[in-house]
């Protein structure tokens, strides 16, 4: 706004010019804080601080506001945000730290004076560092000594010799050179004087460089001693170490050498001391030393037997799995002969991982981490020394858990001894072995020496006797060491035949090989040598045989390439010639492949020149990165032929591939793209060969298995009810983390298990996972806030049922630090906020002057001069060409009259409904956000009227004001149905779906006003009002959902969000962003189970406003053949009614795999684009515009979307209301007065129903009709629609209410006369709307086991049922393949696919609607097969 300040000054001057008495008062005012700053106490570190004050004058452009902290100007920073506008002064600090505590002052200055307000803030810091001493009591002075030794404190000067002052450093002793082994400790020590020189500095150097500090290096300089210790020395630590001492009088150095001898990687020698010949001797000597007891008693020692000063105490009623603890004290302390022993029920207590013992300075303790019932009994501690023994005892009792089965689970008649005997089997008798005497081994044939080239194979063979000796073994040695094991060495020893195969040899395999044969009687050896000639690692020489001509090389090249492809594009010029310096050149390029399917075989191939270049390097890249080696990829580079073979491809292989060739003279590239379409993850088609009837045979076999046996097995397991043998543990998790519950259930027949969370049945899907692997698991991969509550698991079979319950608690994440980050990135909603604030600032000026003009006009009896030009700001958006053409055809006066007529009718109906408190506007009346705005305005006016009435009645005669209260309640409900028909093609199958989605929006306002007469200024209160209501949201699974509202209120309302009745807290998954006048709820990732009603509640002291809408999460259907998704309408077209000449518009949003063909139909005929019909598309939203429609354009319009996978359709009606037309002049002889052919008929309807009054009138010229209610004319509006078709005249009331009752007349007249007909309309209040729905009674069903069963009921009622539930014996039945539930609005059916005998019982259906619920029950009898 350029020149905005001058405009403000001129406008203000023109407004106050007529009131001279106020001129002197507004000349100059010093700033005054009407509301001071408030102190902030007990704020924790990391939270947000908010200071707020109010100041006058609010419109002083020269007012300057400054902030101070502890008397100093507040520094600018990312954590500090200030605001000064409209009389509000705000300081926000986010986050706060303890150092922010102090006094904050706000100083306001203008040219007339200044004002200051002050407040204090105290921040409680988080104790991350413990500053207090952790030393035990009695050692408080030790910290000073430690500080003195470390050089942090003041040194004692009483030991400083006077004669040492002023001397340069001098080393009295020098460190010794050291030779140590690797990983040993190196210790260098020397002495230095003067001792207590505070300016002394000691540095160590290694090979002339400063010694690095580290965990292995420790230096000491204290009391004249200089020490260097290096722990865990390595070979790299060897070298010269120098110590340099420096003070202000000079310096001195001393050096020493360190040599570290490295060790082998593996120590092969024994590590026993030299005086121990074997490990057994060392263990014996150690045990003798540790357990040696002195038998001689010193004469001067006094007998002192053990004595317990404190006894151990009993541990009673300890739950199984809990810990137990014993502790006691014994004297004498420090007796080396004292031995402590523990006993359990008189036996020495066994040690284990559960048991921990302690004996230290006379304190004895025994801890058992967890106990079992068998651990109950008496525990005894015995202390023994050379003078005597003492004992102390205590008892332990354990309460066992009842969920552990101690009884044997073996079948009847089977015992553990019998089972062991069966497992052991028969023990065969040991055959008698006759020992045979063999002689020493002898090689009958010898191994022979060989000489081979590298990579060739070597084989040694020989024979040895005696070949039948079982103790004979063969060993191989190379160069005196055992031959290492590996895949290259394969040796055989079978029936005296010995062989060794080396698959391929290296140069290091050369040497002497020895084969050694050993048995119990001796040994024999045979020897041979292997000589291996090494080959160069890389062959850089040309491999073309000498003397080969270029023609021969060309022939060999062509023969090689023809092995792979039939076309040869390389010529003789493409052969490698070192003198030509040829750079790489791709003679042919690799080709793109865009139609591949998953698991297909493909390859890239090209031809590269020069051929035979030894320095040529070929590389492959995928999407700019080197192609990783996989067993699916096989690269080829052979005589100029370059290829990459793909064994099979996946969709993730789609992308750009580059083949790059490089040599000494340059490089070249060729590139191509692969696109791979995926196959469905699950194969639904039969995999049996064609014409194979095996599936029928399989079904016959399965049917034969289900036949009940004629005789009952006597060893059959008895029938038992379900029992939970493991406890269901409660869970406390952070939001977004997984939660898991698992139970184990026993019972016969095998029970069925059902899970419930907060009373709702859990169904297996993307939000909840139900698995059974012997134990039943409920997994919640990603928890939400509203998962908090009760978790139940029900196990049921034909014998009975069991229920286990626990709690799930979902807490806020502890690692969400977004609100305390100093340099956090700017959130996305700041951009929306900036745009919103910019728009508000642009409009705020006009809004202020509009309000001021209205106030001044009400206060003044005459017209203000200079104010006439203050009009609301008008925005003129750009007008399309087609709209300009329409406006050019109609005069401006026509549109003004039409707008005035509609506005008057709308105001009349609004006031009528407001007077009778009929704020419910159901159905199609709520068509845009303007309706909510109009209702909010009506609600505010009603508040003002109630307030003024209450003030008059509240004044008591004695002058003492008593509190009074008034309230206003408004509610608005909007229901929108979106219907579409989808057709999906899957092969030869066509699937048709009829989809109806219902979107519900609800806005509710509650205002409560309490008045009390007080002295002084009173802050105004304005109840919250939603200026932009919440809109229903329909999204697909795993997408983001967003709800947004805008509101007004004074003071600023607090906003809360709810899912059903559960309050939503701000979290990473459920983000709530609330700022001035606007609040947004974002659900980052939604699932089908998240579908529910979400509500926003705004509340302040003036009242409460509530706005609700439903979230519908649709499951993504599996893509059709080739990954193609059929079309689906996200938003369908809606019926519309327009006047002749006004614009009619249909919008539909469609999704699906492109290309999509979208076209429009009218009454089944395709619409072609023309001047009247315009078709637009933007962001998948398809729009049909009907420009300047007439009555003949009325009809049913349909939008059709088609692609290769199917089609989708949605339709709506367009009604064009035609105004009355002037009649043509008629022939004088044929004219006649109006005559009623068909009278109006009286009607009685229910509230909210549609009413149509119709009559037939004949006359010439054609009569014009006027409709009246009582003595008042009925004006056309969106609720009252008049039309004429030929001789028929009709009045349509879209929704009738009790105030619409009365006598309706149709007055038809022409120039020859007039006539009228009338009828009565009566509207019955919807008294029975609160009645619950009615259903037909269920009938008992009796079937044979294995047959299907069906229960059916018909639902009727004024209000549509919202849910249908089925129960068996009072327990909810989840929908499974065995139990299928169908509800189409009128009929509810339960289908049981296969019945079992345990399914018998009472089945109940419960139908619920918004007005109540009703139930009906019947009995199912399943007869067993005889």
UniProtKB/TrEMBL annotation:
| Ig-like domain span | 31-124, 169-255, 306-397, 441-531, 584-677, 1024-1112, 1127-1203, 1234-1322, 1333-1421
Which cellular components does GO assign to this protein? Answer: cytoplasm
Would I find Transcription regulation among this entry's keywords?
A: no
Compositional bias of kind Polar residues? 939-952
Asked whether the UniProt record includes Repeat among its keywords, one would answer yes
Q: What keywords appear on the UniProt entry?
A: Cytoplasm, Immunoglobulin domain, Muscle protein, Repeat, SH3 domain
Q: Which family does it belong to?
A: Belongs to the protein kinase superfamily. CAMK Ser/Thr protein kinase family.
UniProt-recorded name of the protein: LD28564p1
Q: What SMART domains does UniProt report for this protein, alphabetically?
A: IG (SM00409), IGc2 (SM00408)
Chief localization class? cytoplasm
Organism, as annotated: Drosophila melanogaster
Q: Which Pfam families match?
A: I-set (PF07679)
Q: What InterPro entries does the annotation carry?
A: Ig-like_dom, Ig-like_dom_sf, Ig-like_fold, Ig_I-set, Ig_sub, Ig_sub2
Instruction: Please list where the region (Disordered) is annotated.
Output: 856-884, 929-966
Instruction: Kindly list the places in or outside the cell where this protein is found, as annotated in its UniProt entry.
Output: Cytoplasm
